[in-house]
Design a protein that fits this description.
With about 475 residues, the chain is α+β, with helices and mostly antiparallel strands. It folds into 3 domains: about 290 residues, no CATH class; about 110 residues, no CATH class; about 60 residues, Orthogonal Bundle (Arc Repressor Mutant, subunit A), CATH 1.10.10. It has 16 helices and 16 strands. The radius of gyration is 30 Å and the shape is elongated.
């Protein structure tokens, strides 16, 4: 039996308007090499100037993970050849990062587990290599974008734990609004450090790094493959030959990892203090302002359970993203009940999303969905009819009441109209009425079904049940 040891390095692009050491825009999708200047191009004589907003965002993250925030931190030069970073070195934090010794809690199989966060440090992003056949191009728009690199302790023991940790981290940076954390655009990407060891062994064995993963699914698959590869090598007696300290890439077509290069030690980067930047000294005002963070997922989940009396599982689902949490609370503000709002948001609405549809661009917004829920609650329509209305709203830009009228699905709640249907059905089924009165109470469901059928599903079930009981008791 083997135990998996996983530590993660997550690179989060901070959503500042400008780059970390210059005033170039950080906007995504611009024409290649247009958001550049002498500083991010690494031209001789150009000097970096630290972006204060990036520092503020790092401080907020530090408070969110209960970390130590160093009042003094320094930048270093990391000497390593990046083909897409023109200076030939990266400005990063090494000896004294801005954030240290934090923690994050995940829930696995209904058990809470603490994951230590060793450090979170500021650095600049590299550019992007683009390959077309035999030709390669470099786009430097991304070079100099501020990154917060978040390094965990090797506390995770499975792919599931790693993915749960990443989802929690993703939610936190989105709640803090320090990054859009768009994984497809590379704003939130992960390097996995992984090794195995015999169960019960406390020794750390050879660590392999899997680089630049930007999908929860691919991260899980990469870990699962690499664990299997290392276990097979161990069992075949070729562990030391097959598992070496290296950087590997994950092939998203074959779901396999493959060797990229040997993994460097920190000494090989030849770190030294960045001579063009002074130490970062945090003022009392900056630290106080950094404490002013919004309600985070754990606190919001606990409040939803306490205030709205919803199940913890449902609260977990709703608070998994800041957009869904806002959508839910907007529905409550519009007067919809929490219980129905949960199911109509997490099951009915999201279950209808296709392609690129998300909670952010949903054709049915929180006000419309709340109105639909209220129309169920006030018995204007049945829950079954509401599903048809929601289908219609997903395809048509129309108000809820207008859609209900157009589809003709209003419930009949008029006592006299329902009584007329009940009396007709009872008169046609006198033998069953007699059986019911003689103790065959299961026939009550038959009568309800007949009334609903006669009304083509439009009769209010509560009123049908009430009036039927009254008629059958006489």
């Amino acid at each position: 039996m083997f135990e998996v040891v996983i530590g993660l390095e997550v690179h989060v692009q901070l959503n500042t308007k400008t780059k970390i050491f210059c005033s170039c825009a950080t906007s995504f999708g611009e024409e290649p090499n247009t958001n550049v200047c002498p500083v991010c191009l690494g031209l001789p004589g150009a000097l970096p100037v630290l972006n204060e907003e990036a520092v503020r965002k790092a401080i907020s993250f530090g408070y969110a993970i209960n970390a130590t925030i160093n009042k003094k931190s320094i930048f270093n030069r990391k000497n390593y050849f990046y083909p897409d970073l023109p200076k030939g070195y990266q400005i990063s934090q090494f000896e004294i990062p801005i954030v240290e010794n934090g923690e994050l809690f995940i829930n696995i199989n209904n058990k809470t587990k603490r994951i230590g966060i060793t450090r979170a440090h500021l650095e600049e992003d590299a550019g992007k290599n683009i390959h077309h056949g035999d030709e390669s191009y470099v786009d430097l728009n991304r070079a100099g974008t501020p990154l917060l690199e978040i390094v965990s302790e090797p506390d995770m023991r499975s792919a599931e734990e790693a993915v749960e940790y990443l989802k929690k981290l993703h939610a936190i940076v989105r709640y803090l609004d320090i990054s859009d954390a768009n994984m497809q655009e590379g704003s939130f990407r992960c390097d996995v450090n992984l090794s195995i060891r015999p169960k019960g062994d406390e020794k750390f064995y050879t660590r392999v790094e899997i680089k630049n993963l930007n999908s929860f699914r691919f991260i899980q698959k990469a870990i699962e493959y690499e664990v299997e590869r290392q276990i097979e090598a161990w069992e075949d007696g070729i562990y030391e030959e097959e598992v070496v300290q290296e950087t590997r890439l994950f092939d998203t077509k074959t779901f396999k990892t493959k060797s990229m290069r040997g993994k460097e030690d920190s000494a090989e980067y030849r770190y030294f203090p960045e001579p063009d930047l002074l130490p970062v000294i945090l003022t009392k005002e900056m630290l106080e302002k950094g404490k002013n963070i919004p309600e985070l997922p754990d606190e919001k989940r606990e409040r939803f359970v306490r205030e709205y009396k919803i199940k913890e599982y449902d609260a977990n689902v709703i608070t998994s993203s800041v957009e869904m949490a806002r959508f839910f609370e907007d529905m409550i503000q519009e007067g919809a009940s929490p219980k129905l709002s949960v199911s109509w948001l997490t099951v009915e609405l999201i279950g209808r999303f296709k392609g690129d549809t998300t909670i952010e661009n949903s054709p049915v917004d929180s006000k419309k969905l709340a109105k639909l829920v209220k129309r169920i609650e006030d018995s204007t329509i049945s829950a079954k009819a509401a599903k048809d209305v929601l289908d219609f709203l997903m395809e048509n830009d129309i108000e809820v009441d207008e859609a209900i009228d157009k589809l003709g699905v209003k419930q009949v709640s008029d006592d006299s109209a329902i009584l007329a249907m009940i009396d007709e059905i009872l008169s046609k089924n006198k033998d069953k009425v007699e059986e019911y009165k003689n103790g065959k109470e299961k026939l009550f469901g038959f009568f309800v079904g007949q009334v609903m059928k006669a009304s083509k599903g439009s009769a209010n079930p509560k009123i049908v049940n009430k009036l039927l009981k009254e008629r059958l008791s006489t």
